[in-house]
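Hi there, hope your week has been kind to you so far. Please have a think about how the structure follows from the sequence. I've dropped the whole record in just underneath, so have a look:

_____
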Amino acid sequence: MMTRFTKWFAASTTVVFIAALSTAWRFDGDIKAASAKTAIGSVLINTRCGQIEYQEAGTGTPLLMVHGSGGGHDQGMAFAGSLTQSGIRVIAMSRFGYLRTPMPADASPAAQADAHVCLMDALGITKAAVAGGSAGGPSALQMAIRHPDRVNALVLLVPLAYKPDALPNSAKPLAPWAESMLMQLIGSDFLFWVGLHVARDQVIQYVLATPPRQVSSASLEERARINAMMDRILPVSARSAGLRSDSVMAKHLGPSNLASVRAPTLVVSVRDDGFGTYAGAEYTASQIKGAKFIGYEQGGHIWVGHQVEVMAEIVKLLVPNEKP
């Protein structure tokens, strides 16, 4: 005869088992769906620099869109796709170690910049504008420095950028525990998936480096943009090699020959960006002749509330006669 405790234990075990099974089923379904989405619209092309995954849309002024950490061609197109309505041909690639673009032995910003030009060559594009967001900023900048005859405009959005030690930081470095937590989170599909479901504000704060309260009070359109951005990071396992490479790169950035940049340049950052891009972005703009710097006080690393303005500024730079 079963005791009351035995019945309780059996019932509890059954509930836990069903909950675990349900969680596993939901996780498996979400990851399969996310994985399927990453291939939509993309092409794997052979170039002088190896295989590169990309997608493109629109006609007109070519813009090479270089995504940030946790991204890929999908993140780049999600950001820049609307520019096609303003006479811009958007080419969004997956950088080294992201999605279907393999990780080479040399994944430095200079090597990535050369690969951007290899993609242009494979597509028959002589000159293009290049836009780099976050960790895509260093290779976009290097492209303008190393291949000035191939770049007719440069856009750096909350870029990972060098600044002299004498200049104050615009954000405190992540505490060791926070950095460890972040690396674990972006190193596991399951942990990141759980974070999106049970700790979304923490994902916004640490992965997107943005104050969660700003997202919660943003417009419906902005919240939709940011939620889609977070969901699109899955599967992180398909982006992990690139993420690890970006993490190493961020700690070893050195000065660049900024005075050699000849392309018209727009640099955008936000003072409360948790990744501290503001100081480096402002310094970079100050060293590039004629560069325009736009600095917002609030909005975090994903410039909450400023999307329309940022896109209008890009259109103004790339298609001066076009009304955004």
In short: Residues 56 and 91 are 4 Å apart (CA to CA). The chain has a mean pLDDT of 91. Residues 43-170+240-318 form a domain with the Rossmann fold fold (CATH 3.40.50.1820).
